[in-house]
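Sanity check

After download, print the first record. It should look like this:
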Amino acid sequence: MTAAGLRAIGLDVGGTSVRAGVVDERGSLLDTTRVGTPSDENALEDAIAGAIEELRNRHEGVAAVGLAVAGFVAQDRRSVMFAPHLAWRAAPVADRIAKRVGLPVTLEHDANAATVAEHRFGAARGAEVACLIALGTGIGAGLLLNGRIYRGAHGVAPELGHLCVVPGGRACPCGKYGCWERYCSGTALAATAVELLARHPGSSTVLAREISGDPGSLTGRRVAGAARDGDPIAQRALGELAKWLGEGLALVADVFDPEVMVIAGGVSESAPLFLDEAREHYAGAITGAGHRPLARIRTAHLGDDTAIVGAAALALDSHVESRTDPAAASPSTRVGEAPRAWRWGVGQRKAT
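Expected structure tokens:
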């Protein structure tokens, strides 16, 4: 067991895996563990508690736990109202986990947690108005207004991935058609490539061979890999993603006028293949193009660890505030500054 100062455990609870990490007061990720995500509610909480205990056994000074969840989190950040890929429904998750592990637990939407991490330690550092767009299976989003995470009246904002960009377009699991994430995500990238392969048989030098007989096996990651290998269809699919990313960012900028927009999520790993083109589309699609400042568009500095680090940061904020001024610990704490009792430094993640 290692000796150290104040630390928190952050967990990124997704539909496929539960990833947990120990984070210190400088935002450095010291150690991680991962388990598969069970489909049963009790088993899921067993897995979370087990990951926490595993890391506590290896590290001293763990004072709090932060859970970053892919779902609707209540405004008080104690309950998960709904999570499409998790078992929780109107579940008092924070209190149940706190009781099991004997530590205070803070709950947050995963994109909000990622936004906190990038604002405090990464690509959005110092911005008063910022937006994070997480491109993965769909689109997750976090919004920072006047230095505070904006959650909306009921804690579920902002669902930017379900802005309609193509009326009557591709069906979305949310029940609508033409949502932004159906055209700009890892899932969308694969769907676009399959459509292009059907329309232009014989044009692909890599993808057609890879998915012969099973178009459903195609993933966004494979499309990006084929694009790097020079496949024309894959490159066109990435061009389509770049266009829709630019169009969507222009909509976001028209409404919120952010200083910076951070591109996160698994698809962002392939940003060199599409981000410059997306910036060009954004600059041309924004209202008043050529006559107003443009937001900086950056990729996330913390990569896949953003939600873990952000969840831990929020947990330590709440823990320190509750010890020094219980009345001040609330969901409205500015994420741009740590509680009055302390100040986070800017650390570097430790490779694990």
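If your output differs, re-run the checksum step. Summary of this record's structure: Residues 127-300 form a domain with the Nucleotidyltransferase; domain 5 fold (CATH 3.30.420.40).
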